[in-house]
Structures are given as structure tokens and as C-alpha cells.
Amino acid sequence: MQLALLVPGGHGQLGRELAALGTDEVSVHAPGSADLDLTSAGSVIDAVATLAETARAQGRRPVVVNAGAYTAVDRAEAERARAFAVNADGPRVLAAACSSRGIPLVHVSTDYVFPGDADRPYEVGDATGPKSAYGITKLAGEQAVLGSGARSWIVRTGWAYGAYGANIAKTFARLESERDTVSVVDDQVGSPTWTGDLARGLVELAAKIASGAPPVGRVLHCTGAGAVSWYGFARAVFEELGADPERVRPCGSRDYPTQAERPAYSALSGAAWVAEGLTPMRLWRDALAAAFLLHPKDFRP
Fold this sequence. Notes:
Helix content is about 40%, strand content about 15%. By secondary structure, it is α/β, with parallel strands linked by helices. It has a single domain (about 5-170, about 190-225, about 265-280), classed as Rossmann fold (3-Layer(aba) Sandwich). The strands form 4 sheets. Strands 2-1-3-4-5-10 form a 6-stranded parallel beta sheet, with helices on both faces. Strands 6-9 form a two-stranded parallel sheet. A two-stranded parallel sheet has the order 7-12. The relative contact order is 0.16.
């Protein structure tokens, strides 16, 4: 079976990982926002129509994997209208366009839709309750997609990092080269996710959907397995760089106030993902080691 994937947000860190997975069996069109603006209904409708026509001409099964998002968590507090346009209104139009063409949609969402008061990894059916504008707009996007009538699935992830673009792993690597010690919050816990693993999981999901054996559950979680604080993650980055992890010092969130409130605990359970027959995600620590091994230059300043 051959796939044709359309990836809005194709120039972001996840979109570029998805584009890199293109093969003879899986064609990937991953336009950036300049070519596919999620806030432009005309642009979205035209892109989905082109996907349908191209896939039909090539004898491929079309699937849309939406990696486009407004991800500036703090700036979203002041730019809520823009965040809603990209994270909620855009997916609503995208889902409607997919529904009209009979094309499945996989929409990537976030752990920040949860309130952060759990004491164990969040399951897909747990109550949401975002604390930030970013989380609120992403939850609105989930609801718009699921209520659209499209054949759609939500994949929540969190703490994404990778070889492309700016991300927290690269920030920790840069700070290691610039400072003798680095203070990192130890009271926010989540599941770091290498975008390389996430992209492969999304392609596997798209293939499963296109094969006619889609997941029964419409909401799934796909993150690195396990949980760690930002402090623990920073120490692991230092270890991968061959630096002394004792140079990373723990601190509290109140020592570094931000515009947006982050969930104190947002680790996600992969139980539903595995139950649907999808490949389990590896432990976050093993994924970090693999990412640094495969992309040594990309994670060093």
C-alpha cells in the first residue's frame, strides 16, 4: 500500500521530521505556512483538494497529518486571537475540507490540555482542564476536529525536541557551553519526546488508518515513555554532551515566573497507543541518546 501524506506545518521541527520519512511507498508533501496558511480557508481547501487529486492520479491512499500549530506558549497569553486562529479555527477548516473529500485526518495536540494535578500519567479519557491560553486553544482544536464529522484522530504529545528548529534540548546544550552552572525547574514533570520517534509513530498510524484497520479510539497519546522533570532532562542532556550533570542545579517554578502557567505534571500514558497495535514508544532516556548519536552536530551550539 502506498500513502500520500499532506503535512501542514511542514517547516516546523515535527513537520521536517515527517518530510524526512518520505520514501517510494510514502510520499510526503510538507509545506510551510507561506505555502499552506492554516488561517486561510482558501489555502487549506486548495491543499486538501490537490492532495485528493494527486493521490488518485498516483494510486495512493491520502492522509493529512496536521503538524501545524501556534506553539509560543508564553506569547499566546497576549496573542490569544492569533493562537485560536492557528490552533482551533485552522484545524476546524482543515477537518471540514478533509470530510468533504473523504480523507482521514490525524491532528497533533499537546499534553498542555491537562490541568497538571495528576499523580500518574494521564490516560486518553482523563478530564482535560488547560491552564494556559496555548492549552485552551489546542483543546478547542481537538474539539473542532472531533466534532467535524471527518474521519479524524487526535494524537497528543509533549515536551518535543529534535534536530530541526529551536527546542529545549538545544537550549540546554547551548547553556552548557555558556555557563558554569545552570538552574532548571524541578517541579514540572512530563514526558520528553524525540520528534524522530514521534514522526515514525505518526506515519505508522497513518498507514494503519489507510489500510482500513484504523484505531477504535479517536484520541491517542504518543510521547517518550516514562517521566522526568525539566531538571532531570537537563542533566541527561549534559550527560549526552559529556559534561558534568552536577553543573545543573534544581530550582522551583516560582524562581522563574512565566506569563503562561505550565502544568506541574503532564506525563502521558501510552497505554491506548499500544492497545491499538501501534509500536510502543521507547523510554525517553533511550530516545535522547539515539537523537544525540544520530544528530551530533544539530544538538551542539
